[in-house]
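Request: How about a record?
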Amino acid sequence: MRTGRARDLGVAEDISAGHIMKHFPICSAAMLLSLACNAFAEVPSQWVHPGPDGKLIYRTTPAGDRIMDFSYAGYMGGGVALPTVQVKQTVHPTGGDDDTKPIQAAIDQVAKLPLENGFRGAVLLAPGVFICPESITIPASGIVLRGSGSAAANASTIKMTGKPHLAINVRGPGGVGRAQQGGDARDAMTTSIADAYVPSGAISFTVAGAKGFTVGDTIVIRRPVTAAWVKFMQMDDLMRDGKPQTWIKTGSTTNAERTIAAIAGNKITLDVPLSDSFDAKYLSPPGTAVVKFSPPARLSQVGIESLHIECPPQEISHTQPHFTALRLNGEDCWARDLIIDETMNSVAVSGRRITLTNVAVNRKAKHQGSSKPAEFAPNGSQVLMDRCTVSADNVWFVATGAGVSGPVVVLNCTFTGNGRAESHQRWSTGMLYDNCQAEGGGLEFRNRGAMGSGHGWSMGWGVMWNCRAKDYVMQNPPGAMNWLIGCTGENTLKPRPFDTKPMLPAGVEEATGTPVTPRSLYLTQLSERLGPVALKKIGY
């Protein structure tokens, strides 16, 4: 087994294969729960593996960093079945040139209904083709837009016509900006992290003072971007075309929204583990703030289901006006059973606790230009992409934006074409590609240097687990790790873009070309936390 730069990062000596096989037999209960025992010759992962009692054991760095528990990704925090909501309005195709208005009128009628157990009702589109020259907007919580099917004779097709536009918009008054910034905290209770180092994957930390904080409070953890940290990350010298580029502006923060699960003295325990580390050596002054705040208003319990969305072929650059499919900003929302044809920058989500399952994006028209669109942009926290597909060339199959705080999980997804899936820019953390396939393309967690406008290090503490791809670019940032575990395909060494040397350090590699157990990291973690019934609830 390969461990890449594990020793360079101060990780303990490797456990021998013989020792592991003796103490952790392959067909343990935890591995069976995670679909582990199959025809492949698998080996237990050193970084996460079941112990003799079936409980997962996590290997840590000397500082305590570990692969995080990704199982909190998804609707209602993972392991919860998507609901079936009662139909309150049904819409049939008019046969005319504008079905947007009757669909929107039905949604608006349901929006006036009272919430019952979090739901107002579903708007059902009958089978047929709905001509839509304008966007459909879901303006309130508790509404489901459901087609009669995404394929075959019973399909409900939203056929986009007219000027380029967005097909479906799910967006409340809070908006993505306030959500990512952590809401309005000008008058909120504030303290700071007192620990010299909080490792990635931790679920608790000590603060300077917990007075005024209570269990159930929503908090935002504001990690400062200091000149010392930017220099440590070797992001203080980005140049493009002779002009300096800014990776992340000093004085700003990267933010993680969490809920307080327990308080003991000045120790705060969170509902979801942290996806980044916090090293006071580079973050003080001013230190990492912990702020109690009122979350931004978000739509909740909104679903998009069983639809076919199509637009005219777009053999253009994404910098030109173009048709796109879905924008979803909310909390505890979902999209399932969608087939999306020919849109560009097709699906983007923000907010938290969102599931996208069985969503397929297909493009026959080839995108033009070197700058590429992102067909899936999972730019929230606790986002699960499950059994989704992209078939397209010259695209980012998946790409994150700046400062996304995981967990973000891409599970059992298949990408066809010469595109790539990646973390795109400016220090997002805690992303997992689990059993994903990109046989004709690649997967990346890397330093993008001065690409874009200074995208720089795009991902820390990310994991690729039992994936197959033509190639990878997996690199280790200063003071952090990215893992390539049980994956098939070549990990390509590269310098920072626009440089010719030096080659940047490869991420931590283990069992290259050989699948590891547990077969699925996410499903095994989910089963351990909530029991095997959680897997059945999400269709496994």
Remarks:
- The helical segments are 17-23, 29-33, 100-111, 175-181, 227-232, 280-283, 521-530, 533-537.
- The mean pLDDT is 90.
- The first strand starts at residue 43 and ends at 44.
- The domain at 84-175+298-435 is CATH 2.160.20.10 (Pectate Lyase C-like).
